[in-house]
Design goal:
Blueprint (H helix, E strand, L loop, with lengths): L15 E5 L27 H13 L4 E5 L9 H9 L6 E6 L4 H10 L4 E5 L5 H8 L4 H14 L5 E6 L8 H10 L3 E6 L11 H4 L3 H9 L4 E3 L8 E6 L6 E5 L12 E4 L4 E3 L7 E3 H7 L4 H11 L21 H4 L2
Parallel strand pairs: 1-2, 1-10, 2-3, 3-4, 4-5, 5-6, 6-9
Antiparallel strand pairs: 7-8, 8-9, 10-11, 11-12
Helix pairs in contact: 1-2, 1-10, 3-5
Bound molecules: S-adenosylmethionine and iron/sulfur cluster.
S-adenosylmethionine binds next to strand 3, strand 5 and helix 11.
């Protein structure tokens, strides 16, 4: 196991890597993608072997947690095998995945066996018609079957992710809480982030704050502020009526969590993004392709990249596109 660590210029230890394994997706969620998206050609994206080699270098440099995401990670061929290889890297504590759940009915068991420890599953509403509207192509029943398959496969601490939009799904907040309680799942409510240009709705108009979500929940449940925190943007609460589950609130419009930020993101093009809300990045695909047999070159590039990790992001509440990357390119 490695005793090396990655440190940025603000003395923050970076030990969490989110890797996007594809920019493609079987859904077209209205807050994430435009309806007619162009995806990257194959030669521009990292091969599965390159993704593995990058994961290995990060773990050598002290990364303890990796989350695979996308796009939809489960639609990339070879994903289960990749999970098996990454989860076996000595020193890695946790391999997690964020998924839309559409493929879980088929893949929950193999993923669990491949060493994936935890899943975040996106679920924005429980009405099949509205689910189709928000995802443009998604089938709610298939996703719920996937969630149940994950529970049966043995995944623990599974978390639902819900992006709340005023007038679209805010009236389903308490139904989602009750769904989470019934299945013993944590649930996080996310404020929409201004990533990528969309025309389907006005992000400023559909903004629904975490404080508003808590007000809604307080109409039916007793919320208890919990001191629990990860180093991420979530703040956690519990319910007096169902203390076994956690409620997270992800408020990217506040930047209180930047001081303890421990994460970086790798796009499927091999670009290392040092901050979700800034463009500071380093092209690691170029390095891995130029020096395919010299992992020390890749490690040096990763160590050097830490020097440009910005202190914080600053999203504004408006419809101006502040970051041109879409979330599927960013690896949410
Ligand atoms: N396809 C997988 C999924 O949906 O879970 C993984 C990738 S998706 C980009 C990761 C997470 O980002 C999802 O929970 C999704 O709801 C969230 N997301 C996408 N676009 C967003 C936006 N503009 N603001 C906030 N969250 C967003
Ligand atoms: Fe696909 Fe996830 Fe984006 Fe929805 S949020 S379009 S499921 S990548």
């Amino acid at each position: 196991m490695s005793d090396r660590i990655l440190m940025d210029n603000f003395s923050r230890r970076v030990d969490y890597l989110r890797m996007s394994v594809t920019d493609r997706c079987d859904f077209r969620c209205v807050y994430c993608m435009a309806e007619d998206m162009e995806f990257l050609p194959r030669q521009k994206i990292l091969t599965m072997e390159e993704i593995y080699q990058l994961a290995k270098s990060f773990v050598t440099l002290g990364t303890r947690k990796i989350r695979l995401t996308g796009g939809e990670p489960l639609i990339r061929p070879g994903i289960v095998e990749l999970c098996g290889r990454i989860s076996s890297l000595p020193g890695l504590r946790e391999l997690c995945m964020t998924t839309n759940g559409s493929q879980l009915a088929r893949l929950a068991d193999p993923l669990f066996e491949a060493g994936v420890k935890r899943l975040n599953i996106s679920l924005d509403c429980l009405d099949p018609k509205r689910f189709r509207e928000l995802t443009r192509t998604g089938d709610l029943e298939q996703v719920i079957k996937g969630i149940d398959a994950a529970n049966r496969a043995g995944f623990c601490n599974t978390k639902l992710n819900c992006v709340v939009m005023k007038g679209r799904n805010d009236h389903e907040i308490n139904d989602l809480v009750s769904f989470a309680i019934d299945r013993n799942l944590d649930i996080s409510f996310i404020e929409e982030m201004p990533l990528g240009a969309i025309h389907e709705h006005s992000r400023a108009e559909s903004f629904y704050s975490s404080a508003q979500v808590r007000e809604r929940i307080a109409e039916q449940y007793t919320l208890i502020d919990s001191a629990e925190s990860t180093q991420g943007p979530s703040r956690y609460w519990r319910l007096a009526e169902a203390p076994q589950i956690r409620l997270g609130f992800i408020s990217p419009h506040s930047h209180n969590f930047c001081a303890t930020c421990n994460r970086v993101r790798l796009t499927v093009e091999g670009r290392l993004l040092l901050c979700l809300g800034n463009e500071h990045s380093v092209d690691l695909k170029e390095v891995i392709r130029r020096y395919p047999d010299e992992p020390e070159q890749l490690e040096k590039a990763i160590i050097d990249a830490m020097k440009i990790k910005p202190y914080q992001h600053n999203f504004q509440l408006s419809d101006d596109v502040q970051i041109v990357r879409f979330m599927n390119m960013t690896g949410g």
